[in-house]
């Protein structure tokens, strides 16, 4: 099977990325709706109104709604990576992978992964702190400890993507110089 061009492995990957892209939008929309419902329950609490018909649903949203802003930001980071991979695979289908834009796409993917990793650490700390402040047990009965749980694989991927971005940038520059050579 071909790796570049129409009907290639790159076109199959592009189709899979397109499906994941649209599923990500569905998930993001659902998370945003739950976030709006959580905001509505806060307003209802402030006004002293308690809905009767969907009390259990609103109670669940009230208890766990604070997780959804974190989920939305993680979904957005995921969507950025998927979007950039879709753009890269489009150049692969066109048969021209060494375009200057691909270097930028790889850089953005590396930054999104790094941002996600930082966000993951911040959110884990914030969730543990909120649970402790609200006198609720931490899930699984674990105690709060100051251990660093760094995902070395993800940080290696960030560095590797930055290196690949530079390789693509140099490859595109060399290709442009080759086109100008007689």
From TrEMBL:
Transmembrane segments: 20-44, 64-82, 108-132, 152-169
Matching InterPro entries: DUF2975, ParB/Sulfiredoxin_sf
The keyword Ion transport is assigned to this record: no
Domain of life: Bacteria
Assigned keywords, A-Z: Membrane, Transmembrane, Transmembrane helix
Pfam families: DUF2975
Name of the protein in its database record: DUF2975 domain-containing protein
Source taxonomy: Bacteria, Pseudomonadati, Pseudomonadota, Alphaproteobacteria, Maricaulales
């Amino acid at each position: 099977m071909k790796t570049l061009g129409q009907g290639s492995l790159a076109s199959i990957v592009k189709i899979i990325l397109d499906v994941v892209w649209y599923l990500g939008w569905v998930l993001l929309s659902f998370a945003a709706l739950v976030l709006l419902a959580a905001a509505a329950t806060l307003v209802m609490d402030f006004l002293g109104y308690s809905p009767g018909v969907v009390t259990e649903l609103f109670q669940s949203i009230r208890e766990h709604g604070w997780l959804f802003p974190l989920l939305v930001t993680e979904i957005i980071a995921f969507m950025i990576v998927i979007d950039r991979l879709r753009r890269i695979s489009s150049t692969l289908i066109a048969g021209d992978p060494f375009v200057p834009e691909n270097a930028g796409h790889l850089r953005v993917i590396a930054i999104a992964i790094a941002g996600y990793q930082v966000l993951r650490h911040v959110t884990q700390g914030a969730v543990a702190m909120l649970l402790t402040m609200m006198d609720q047990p931490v899930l699984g009965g674990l105690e709060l400890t100051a251990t660093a749980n760094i995902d070395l694989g993800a940080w290696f991927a960030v560095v590797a993507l930055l290196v690949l971005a530079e390789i693509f940038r140099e490859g595109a520059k060399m290709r442009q110089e080759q086109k100008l050579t007689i």
